[in-house]
Structure formats: structure tokens, C-alpha cells
Design brief:
about 15% strand
Length: about 475
Amino acid sequence: MKQKVFVFFPDGVGLRNFAFTNFKEVGERMGFDIYYWNNTVFSLKDNLGFNEVKIESHKIHPLTPLYARAKKHIELNVSQRKFKDTVYETYKFPFNYKGLVNSIKTLFIRLLIGLNNSEKGLVMVRKKIEKLERQTSKYAYCKRQLLEHKPSLVFCTTQRATQSISALLAAKDLDIPTVVFVYSWDNVPKAMQVADADYYIVWSELMKSEILKYYSFVKEEQVFVTGTPQFVPHYDDQLLQTREEFLKEYKLDINKKYICFSGDDETTSPLDQYYLEDLAIAVRNLNTKEYNLGIIYRKCPVDFTDRYGEVIEEYSDIIKILDPIWKQVGEQWNEVLPTKEDFKMLYNVCEHSEFVTNVCSSTVFDFVLHNKPCIYYNYEQPQLKKGIRDIGQNYKYVHFRSMPSDKAVVFCTDKKELEGQVKLILDGSLTNLDEGKKWFEIVAGKNSAQASLKTWEAIKEILE
């Protein structure tokens, strides 16, 4: 008899990894009966023809987000004291005092932090969140669904959504094993662990060591290393277009060589448009020296600002926009959902660009898989003023300490050097590929091409 697995989407961030890759196909080949337990607005049944159990009840306890925010602050405070490292302070978002309601919420959160600011307090807050969520109608609703469908295991596609807590608690209370996938390479040190589970699936040995380091209640046998499906499409040669096909489809100039500028969200890089302008100026200068270059601007899918507009207009002869093929189905950042078509676009942007530039983005790894270098901008813009976040703090984050050396990317530390670095990369005299590939293996593991298979093998081992 086939074992039924619920692949649980508490929000849309896991769709790209577990609905649009080969994940379902691999699981079915291994004999699993796969149902998508879907808490998102995207219908997997209507759009993809998948077996789907829709979660229609979405209300979490009104206090849960406040306790979750306090929990994150306490975790970061504990890490700061435990590891004697001030970097954890930079992971905190400022409190909101705009308006009476926000002020009351903030005071409540700060009171919770003050009363529970220890490892013992963390346990208390975690238990309180579970108690609150067990009181919700969503918990009862999810429990009824589990009793009706009787899955052998629930696999949660992200650990960072409060919408997942009640559903996973319902599964645990019914003795159904729960597994959670740690979604992103920076999530563990940033205290992004919202959902607790019986087992954890991570990208690499590095992330496994981090889980065990930061969460003493997790034992080694509970953590499985599989890689991430995020990069699996880059190994699919069927996505490849010829250069001519790609340039024609997106109305690009066949006589130009293109550099990709991969945009960031406003929080990470609030002055990102000026780095695009710096690159455009460098390209314009090089084009006077017998180069024929253009820029592909691929925005961050969850950036809703118009901050790049003036720069794109000013350099419209150089910059061509290739927006990610994502669909906005709601107002929140996690309601901007990827499409399968975007895999093909990203694959070919990587394949047919000379290299990529950005501020600290994981697209360095996408391009490394296509043997393309990456420049990270690491200098302040003159527009920086009080109240605007300096991008320099990004590179001090814990996940950037995983670099095997400072040559894992090409760092541009002065805009005056940018043109020269672009020229050296184009001429083949400057690259980060050797160290970049080592870095990718450290972060994403040695099995990135087989991540879907390794994930199902881990699920099979857990069930056995």
C-alpha cells in the first residue's frame, strides 16, 4: 500500500521548490501517494492538476504574531550573549510606534522580551505559542482534515510561517510525523525558526551544524541533509535555449554582450538603484572603447517600488528589463508566487549573460552553476544618510562567514574600480568561479542536483 504524504504549503514561498520542480515526479516514482496540503491562494489542483487538500481556515491566534516576534528577539539576545557576537543585534527589525494600536503591540512585545529574556524564557514562550494555537478554530479544522485523509507524514515546505504552527501541532497530536524544510541559507542564525517539527531537512552539513548549534532541543538524528530543490532546474538541459532564441524572445540585441543586474528588495539594499546606475555608467564608458555591452535588469520578485524608474529611463539604450515571471495574488510579499516559466527564463539569463552583479544575493550560486562570475557591490553610496540602511552590514551576517575565502565573489569596494573590474571579467582576467563553486558546495551541499531525490529518501527513512 502506498504511503500518503502531505506536502504542506503554509504560504507561497515553497511553491517554487516543491510544486514547480521535479519534486512530485520523483516522489511518485518512489511509490508515494502525494497530496498537497495547501494554505495558499494558488490552486495546485486547478493550475497543475495535483491532488490537493485546501485549508480554508486561515485565522491564527491574534497573539501568536506578537509572541513569535518576541521569541525571535529573545533567541537573538540569547545568541548574542552565548556567542559574544553583536551581529545578532543587526537581525532585529525596529519596533513600530506609529499609531496607538502599533504602540500597544510593541509595548506588549517588549514586555514579553523583558520577562522571558533567557533560554528558560524561550521555552516558556514556545509553549505559550503552542497553547494559543491549539485554541484556534484552524487547529481544530486541520485536525479534522488529518483525521479524514490519514497521511503517514506531513512535510512542511518552510519553517518560517506562523500559518504552519497549528497544522503541525494537529499532526503531532495525532502522532503523525512532521518534517520541516529550512527554506533559506541564512535562516538559522537569523532566528527564523517559527515552526517546530519532529525532523528537519536542510541544504548542507553547514546548515545541519547550525541547527544543532542554535537549537539545543534538536538532536542530530532529527536532521537530514538533502540539498535544496531551489537549484535543481539549473541541471535541466531541456530548459536551454540557443543564444539566438533567447535574445529574440526578449527583444535583445544579438550583437551585444549582456551583464545581469539582479535587483534586491528594499530592506536589503535601499539604494539599489544607484548601483544599477553605476553599472550603466561603467558599461557606457566601456562601449566607447570598442565593447558592445548591455544590461539585463532582473528585479527582485517581491520589490514593489518604482525606485529604479529614473535610472532605467536615463540609460534605456543600455538597460533592458526582464522581469521575473511571478504572479501577484495578494498584498503581502509571500503572496507573490513564482511560475514554472520563470525557471526557464532564469536558466537562460544565467546562461547567456557574461556575469551577474548585485548586493549580497544568492543569485551568485545560480550563476556559478552556469560558470558565470559575480560582482558584489560593497561600498556606500553618497545618497546614504541617517535612517537609510548601509548595505555593508549585510556582509557581516553569519551566513557570509561560510565563504571559503574573500575570492568567492568579486567584491567591488569602490565605484571607481567598477569599470576596471567589469573589463577584467570580460577579458577573462578576473573571476570568482573556483572559490565560488567551493562556496556553493559549502552552502548547498554536495547533492544539489539530486535534492528532490535526497529529500524523498529522507522522508522514506523517517517513515521506516
